[in-house]
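Protein: histidine kinase
Species: Pseudothauera rhizosphaerae
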Amino acid sequence: MAKPTAAPPEPLTALPPEQRRRYDLLLAGLDLLDQAVAVFDATPKLVTWNKALVRLLEFPESLLYHGLPFEVLLRFNAERGEYGDGDIDMLVAERMAAVRAFQPHYFERARPNGRVLAVRGVPIPNLGFVSLWTDITEQRRAEAVIQEQNAQLEARVRERTAELERANREIDQIAGALRLNEERLRLILDAIPAMIAHIDAGQRYRFANRAYAEWFGETKGGIVDKSIADVFGPEAYGQIRPHLTEAEQGERVTYEYARRNAEGRTVYARSTVVPDVSLEGGFKGYFVLSIDITEQKASQAALVQAQKMEAVGQLTGGLAHDFNNLLTIIIGNLSALQTQLGGGPGSEYVNPALQASKRGAELIKRLLTFSRRQTLEPCPVEVGALVHNMSHLLVRSLSETIKVRLRLPGEPLHALVDPHQLENALLNLALNARDAMPDGGELTIAVSDREIDANIARLVEVPPGHYVQIDVTDSGGGIDPALVPRLFEPFFTTKPFGSGSGLGLSMVYGFVRQSGGNIRILSTPGKGTNVRFVLPTAQPAGTPVAESAPPPAPRLRSGPVLLVEDEPEVRKVIRMQLTALGHPVIEAENGVEAARLLENVEDIALLVSDTVMPGGVGGRELATRARALRPDLPILLITGYASAGDEAASGATDVPVLRKPFDQAALAAVLQNLNPPQEPGPT
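Structure follows.
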């Protein structure tokens, strides 16, 4: 291959002002790059370079000058050990032979300081070649990504090289060299995963890379000459205008802003604006570097919401425990008073109070469900059949002016869920939809199969996989977008005062999250609301095998009941109920005292204990000690708040648990079915 020749470069001062301006701008842009770039003519001698060449290769600035022979650079590197051991003249000669071949080349070289550089050379036909050095030390840790990017980069280099070959036939050598550098810079800017633009002092675009233009729904050519105000729109432009004013004063600024894209979705970006100030002084425009942070914002919002809901859930669970104790006292005393009064004078006051207390107990149950501390009983449920069966109840519960539509799958879809809680959730959503359509409308319940991939799973906070998706959609008036983020908060309601407790959607949220799914609400004022939630799928349960009826439960042996409860008033109510059922009672106010009674009173026939008590010995631990002392002793635990941690606590996990509040009838039913533990048979 013949060695390329080149005419001596024309002095830069001989260039027209516009070309000189473009050349200065190009060099300024090259100096912003992290890559080292150097252009050599056909001799080969150094024509131009950027500041990264000095930084990455640690060349003394005094070494570099226009016209520096390439051989001098090679010898400098060889003498400082860049090419390893060996004869310096031979090392230089080998590399000069490769350079004079004027072939594209790429290799990686580890410098003595441990940094790894990727070296790429691209020939400029009949002119010389361009060399680029890239620090890929960190990139080597992601080899697969780098290899893919290199393949794309090489393909684009070949494409741009072909374009330059056609252009070189129409322009002179110096203009061709400048065009090569300009196109190369544009290629690099289009390849990097960031949005880059240059804007003049009149706030009109002079350049934008592909990512920047596409983010605004523009093309690279279409965005040029447009003003910032036209591209951003009035609302977004108002957000960034103060920052641009600051940049006009010569300050580098960084800020975030939001805008609505063509699909109506709000997107977010973080931008850094660097003033373009000429060497002679004076503001010429802006260099802009932006990054799309929409996904980051979504993740931050989801984290904040999850933390807030978790905090509210913990608070709600603690309050529910205390209220259950209070309701146990109220219901127990009201039930006893009702029994004493019978139907006589005063009973008309007791009955409403007792019913109100029971409604309060149901409210507390909803609170526990919201806080994800209510024990669920999940099982495989055919969701389509459950929704179809519920439609009759919904039709009767809703106004005659509301039409109910079902969209059910052709094949059965099973979800691992508590069926009663799912029915309650659907009923709550249907009643909310009814209230949103006072003049009538349409309620649609759709059930479908949904596969959630890893990308979506990170946003909705569920594991990837198959789910059953349920959509409840109404044609009502919709909800103010400002209120949507608060809809799952307990006691928050959009209904008029006195029309709702504000716990319906909170209960649904708690149930769905506790069941391993997630839920979201989309609402457009004037067009209705859609509530969509997903639940994990499950295999259908097998046909149960008929079993023989269990033998009648034996009656408890005679003897006193040991009642352990740290709340005196609650203990008093339960003692009264046990006494009314014919059981003598021994009381203890904590687990430590109860353990001593178990050790010293041999004729105790039954242990009834609260689960959480002060003193270091809770109900579970007390049950374990009782089993160790008396394996055949029947045990009943009572609790006002069964959290997941409490259920999984160590100890006798087969002990039945009675939830507070309860009345005498519920206590009697549990005691009737309370069997002594069976001794293990021979194995």
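Remarks: The first strand starts at residue 36 and ends at 41.
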